[in-house]
Amino acid sequence: MKDWWKKSVVYQIYPRSFKDSNGDGFGDIPGIIEKLDYLKELGVDALWLSPVFDSPQDDNGYDIRDYRKIYEKFGTNEDMDKLIQEAHQREIKIILDLVVNHTSDEHEWFVESYQSKDNPYSDYYFWKDPKEDGSEPNNWGSSFCGSAWEYCEQRGQYYLHFYTKKQPDLNWENPKVRKEVYDIMDYWFKKGVDGWRMDVIASISKYTDFPDYPEEPGKKYYTGHMHSNGPRLHEYLQEMNREVLSKYDCMTVGEAPGSTAELARLFTAPERKELNMIFTFEHMNIDRIPGNVNRKWALKPFSLVDLKRIMSEWQEKLNGYGWNALYFENHDQPRIISRWGNDTTYRKECAKAFATVLHGMQGTPYIYQGEEIGMTNVQYELKEYDDVEILNGYKELVQTEKTISEEDFMKAVWNKGRDNARVPMQWDDSSNAGFTSGRPWLKVSDRYKEINVKEALEDENSIFYYYKKLITLRHTREIMTEGDYHLLLPEDETLFVYERRWKNKKWLVAANLSEEKISVEKIKPYLSDNGSIVISNYNRQQISDILMPYEAFIFEIEV
Ligand code: NOJ
After folding, report:
1. CB–CB of 486/471 below 8 Å?
2. Which of 97, 199, 274, 396 is catalytic?
């Protein structure tokens, strides 16, 4: 089918936390194969695997040492071949993670590049001379704290790294680098993969005059608009499309921090021949104070009005121009019900309510492992955490700069830390949640006895079966894919309500994203006697006078 990804639901697997098959405490590819029938039961069309390639794991595989080799703890290249084959047998596609803004510092290109200014790889990365006083070439910061530059004695120069110093940025100005990337993509396409999620793809083109960010009091290093959407970005993506993507029936989704809905049109408009969709960060940043020295750890209360405004803008601006990637969770984001909802009394209702508003939209929905059973955030002591973003943030902000107290930092970690999503998948109520027979690389959530796949599969009203129903709707109802979108009650602080329209049908998608009981009067004007419930998280056949806490439904009206 042409554009199969428009009717698809993608499930993201974070391999090290999904299922361990050999008891080393680390998820692996045979573990994924074991669970393919479970994923088939859920009904998803494609699996996006976070990086599975050989890596020293400084940033959990987002630092690749060899793009053609599977990381040994995940298995072998043969295991990967088998996964592709077994998934395809079940009509499930495989999307891999293309991390080519940077490599690992242990990649052979960087090892060579580091040696001297005159070897074949010397300009595979960005190297710059120090300023006269020996300091960094400019004030750019790394996303994981500190400067984005690291000094190398051998060359007497600094190299650029937007992430950790073990993740040097590739120099896409160099055509040889681009060719290397296209070859890697070809290699995996030939093995049968069906597409790519592209890590921080909006950062591959740099502002090569490397200007400083304007200075602000109390700040030494800066991350901001010069870290993404550089001048040659779209040229590179068009070249990549021409050289590789156009030759395969594939799907692409680019991670694009710093991009607006207008920019999303540039990436995704079909006639521009770049990508199929991009992940926005705009809706994920609504609880963050822009420019704050404590970065993502400076919390701002959740505003439903902001969430609706941003998501609606993307719906409206891309309709007919490009395509949306719909998500609330991934391996970098905390669990949505813990972040903006209720993960205790109304856990199940709340998980279904967020799922309803997301899956009711136009675009390709992404489910992050565990989201379909309502997994929650965790609250650990610092020593239990593994994530380099948390550990670097603690060192720099709490210990060195002292810009945030330990207490506030830990609160922010419990709310926003990436390890919330990375704790092992909860399969059943046996020890370590059935994830491993060994010692898990990251502590399992205390709530696994209550929240696990086994429990969900045995309960016909589970979050799992609600997701399954939403996925079936996406496969069977044209209005879900094609319908246009119109936000209702934009200023309402508890209700997320919108309409979809297609041919002679209208859908009213409504969710009460609060613990309050709300009179149905607010949405009465948009209802009709001539309609029926498509899906309801309170199992209603008819709409009642009160919208209960986290109640959500889709109501279909003939027009
Ligand atoms: C985005 C990835 O999703 C994240 O996990 C990673 O740390 C950075 N890019 C750097 O690759």
Report:
1. no
2. 199
Binning the chain into helix, strand and coil, the percentages to the nearest 5 are: 35, 20, 45
**Read out DSSP for 124-152?**
SB-EEPPPTTS--SS-BB-TTSSBSEEEE
pLDDT tens string 84-138: 999 999 999 999 999 999 999 999 999 999 999 999 999 999 999 999 999 999 9
pTM as predicted:
0.98
Q: What distances in angstroms separate CA 346 from CA 224, 378, 511, 520, one per listed residue?
A: 38, 17, 13, 20
β pairing state of 46-49 and 10-13: parallel
pLDDT tens sequence across 470-526: 999 999 999 999 999 999 999 999 999 999 999 999 999 999 999 999 999 999 999
Q: Which residues line ligand 1 (CB under 6 A)?
A: 59, 62, 99, 163, 199-200, 255, 331-332
Neighbours of 554 (CB within 10 A): 23
Nearest CA to ligand 1 atom 6: 62
Residue 144, burial from CB neighbour count under 10 angstroms (0-12, 13-18, 19+): buried
